From TrEMBL:
Binding residues annotated for Mg(2+), in chain numbering: 53
GO annotations of cellular component type: cytoplasm; heterotrimeric G-protein complex
Species in which this protein is naturally found: Mycena metata
Pfam families, per the entry: G-alpha (PF00503)
The protein, known as: Guanine nucleotide binding protein, alpha subunit
GO biological process terms on file: adenylate cyclase-modulating G protein-coupled receptor signaling pathway
SMART domains in UniProt: G_alpha (SM00275)
Length: 355
């Protein structure tokens, strides 16, 4: 009897460490598949200068926010960026002959020395005029904002506010950025599915190269910088200069006609609407869009652009109706909060209708 038990035990398959690890990985993959099915993706697109990075920061602020550790890291990045910009401006400005400025520029360790020097020299009207006349200062709204808050930003235990995070520049983001999206819904039952906003770095058709990874996106969010309606940009595909808004329309149409994309809806956000409104008083909309026959007003011009994007919205060659358009300023916290709430409510209603 004992011999039979021994032979039977030898016949049993033995699970070694490698097999056990393989089984654990299989179980983890099963759990990941379940989690993926419970997660929906919103693909974020937009041309250069459309404000995608700022929009992503708004998504994070109004979804789960930045914790203390993240704010400390962002604070260090803001201070470092500010120091680099100040060194560059002072090194190229005529006030660089000032002995105190030269000492500050040569200091590599004590960054506060440079800040103190700047604060002292800003009290002199001539120095302030030199800095404000710098081409880099004029072309960089972020630097203008930081210079206005230099005393607060350069404190030893500086923690950036929400406005600081939205205004200041940070190092380039990775090619693909994923941000969980969960803004508070107003009187609407929350859908159990998780939502993630995925952004792809733009440039020379790079967004379309990554579309194979976004084929299952539930919807797309396309940002357009309306304030550049009077500017043009180089289009490498056709080797020509193209109006910035028309280039955005072409990119939107190209994305919508990719067979891999199966999204159910599209959201077009006309960003920097405040700058667009101010510029219309100086440059009529018809100078760049002569076919436009409406009044030279921001709301009417934006509605015309909405109709143009609506006409371009195709999926598998079929015209679609599920498109929403919003006019926003990505630096306005309250306005963007309302916009994100409306977008999420729209997406939830689509899910409930589909399911």
């Amino acid at each position: 009897m004992t011999n039979r038990i021994r032979r039977w035990s030898r016949a049993l398959p033995r699970i070694d460490a490698a097999t056990a690890r393989s089984n654990d990985i299989t179980e983890e993959l099963k759990k990941d598949r379940v989690a993926i099915r419970a997660t929906r993706v919103l693909a974020l697109f937009g041309g250069p200068g459309a404000g995608r990075s700022t929009f992503l920061r708004q998504v994070k602020l109004h979804s789960f926010g930045y914790d203390t550790q993240e704010r400390e890291g962002l604070g260090v990045s803001i201070q470092t960026s500010m120091i680099s910009a100040l060194r560059l401006i002072l090194g190229s400005a005529s006030i660089s002959d000032d002995p105190a400025v030269q000492l500050a520029l040569s200091s590599q360790e004590d960054q506060l020395l440079l800040v103190d020097t700047i604060q002292q020299r800003l009290a002199v009207p001539l120095v302030k005029q030199v800095i404000e006349a710098s081409p880099q200062f004029q072309a960089d709204p972020s630097l203008q904002y930081m210079m206005g808050a230099i005393t607060r930003i350069m404190t030893p235990r500086y923690a950036p506010t929400d406005i600081d995070i939205l205004h200041c520049k940070f190092p380039p983001a990775p090619p693909i950025v994923e941000i969980p999206f969960k803004p508070p819904l107003r009187g609407l039952i929350e859908h159990p599915m998780k939502t993630t906003v995925v952004s792809v770095r733009c440039g020379n058709g790079l967004q379309r190269k990554w579309l194979s990874l976004l084929g299952d996106a539930e919807a797309i969010i396309f940002l357009v910088d309306l304030s550049r309606y009077d500017q043009s940009e180089y289009c490498p595909e056709t080797d020509e200069q193209l109006n910035c808004v028309r280039a955005a329309m072409r990119e939107f149409e190209a994305i919508c006609n990719v067979p891999l994309m199966r999204f159910d809806s599209a959201v077009v956000i006309f960003n920097k609407f405040d700058l667009f409104t101010e510029k219309l008083a100086r440059i009529p909309f018809t100078e760049c869009f002569p076919e436009y026959t409406g009044p030279n007003e921001a709301a009417a011009a934006a509605e015309y652009c909405t109709q143009r994007f609506q006409a371009l919205y195709c999926v598998f060659g079929v015209r679609q109706r599920n498109i929403r358009a919003y006019n926003t300023n990505s630096l306005d916290v309250d306005q963007t909060r309302v916009t994100l709430q409306e977008i999420m409510e729209y997406i939830v209603r689509l899910r409930l209708r589909i399911m």
